[in-house]
């Protein structure tokens, strides 16, 4: 059953087999698994060992006890294979070549490593990105200059000139319809306050 599936590291295979098999079968099943892992066939039919048996000396640096040797099985270190310049960290079991029809090139661009644009359009796209970056740098420089001014009215006038279509707004103190610097006190009208 899927809910009863158990996965253990290769070094813990003995523990797993003892828990799920009767004692008389453990050693035979263990040997069968080890034999299969010692002779894995790759995509060319070459037999390659996937595992290695390691014996390490275990030192006890704290209590001063005598070292002992531990023997265990692990996946071979540095195991890899290469196919047409592509290196895979394990054994390549199967190789399949697929040819995409012309109408599938867009799918490859969306899902794979392919390019959806031809050279000319790729250059246009690169230039558009460069232009956007230069525009951002220009705006940032303009903001830095405006931020360096202490006069709030002058700041507002410059902000209007840089970032808006040049329409007069009350915030800059010029509502008379003139362009550029002006003195609007001549056209100022007063309204009586509500009582």
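-> sequence recovered:
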């Amino acid at each position: 059953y899927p809910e009863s599936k158990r996965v253990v590291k290769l070094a813990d295979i003995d523990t797993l087999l003892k828990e799920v098999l009767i004692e008389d079968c453990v050693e035979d099943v263990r040997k069968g698994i080890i034999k299969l892992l010692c002779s894995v066939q790759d995509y060319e039919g070459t037999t390659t060992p996937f595992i290695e048996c390691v014996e390490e000396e275990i030192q006890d640096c704290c209590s001063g006890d005598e070292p002992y040797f531990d023997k265990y099985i692990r996946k071979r270190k540095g195991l890899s294979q290469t196919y047409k310049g592509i290196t895979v960290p394990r054994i390549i079991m199967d190789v399949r070549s697929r040819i995409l029809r012309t109408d599938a090139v867009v799918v490859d661009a969306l899902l794979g490593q392919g390019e959806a644009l031809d050279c000319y359009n790729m250059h246009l796209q690169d230039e558009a990105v460069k232009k956007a970056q230069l525009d951002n740098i220009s705006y940032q420089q303009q903001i830095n200059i405006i931020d360096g001014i202490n006069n709030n009215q002058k700041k507002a006038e410059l902000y209007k000139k840089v970032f808006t279509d040049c329409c007069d707004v009350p915030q800059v103190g010029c509502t008379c319809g003139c362009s550029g610097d002006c003195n609007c006190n001549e056209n100022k009208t007063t309204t009586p306050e509500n009582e």
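The first helix runs from residue 13 to 20.
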